[in-house]
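A note on notation is needed here, since sequence and fold are reported together in a single record. The reader may check this reading against the record printed directly beneath this paragraph.
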Amino acid sequence: MRRSAMKRIVTLVVALASLWSCVYGSSERKKLGIGVVLGAPTGFSVKYWQSQRVAYQGSIGGMYKGGLMIGADYLVHENALKNPDLPFYYGAGLFIGNAGFGGPEFTRGSFALGVRGAFGLDYLVPGHPFDISVELGPALLLTPVVGMGIELSIALRFYP
């Protein structure tokens, strides 16, 4: 995805979320967040909170050198920093697509499948239906070739 298109999408999501927050604001934390993710991949992100501690996260987007990746993770949140608005989380997940760590030429456009770990911080903006997360994780590509990499991403989600 081109950088200018992603800037427009982020601006639109933030503007709509701000408007929604002003009109329908609530101090109650919602369960489903939707938004954007920048990094690996760059695209769209969803997060569903099963409880205060457990969440499921999904993403779909383009990789740095092209190609499409779809990922899903199981996450556990801990109050490791003694701040309930800034939980540390860890988890594991799967990814599929047509891009390896070096882009489509790494997998020659073939179907790619891998597993990944996730470690991050999730800032739950107090009194607002937003979260911002920063995540780092090791990833292991299983097919069509075996390879390892590190993924870094930043996500901004709105909870309508």
In short: The first strand starts at residue 32 and ends at 39. The chain has a mean pLDDT of 85. Strands lie at 32-39, 42-49, 54-62, 68-78, 88-97, 112-124, 130-143, 147-158.
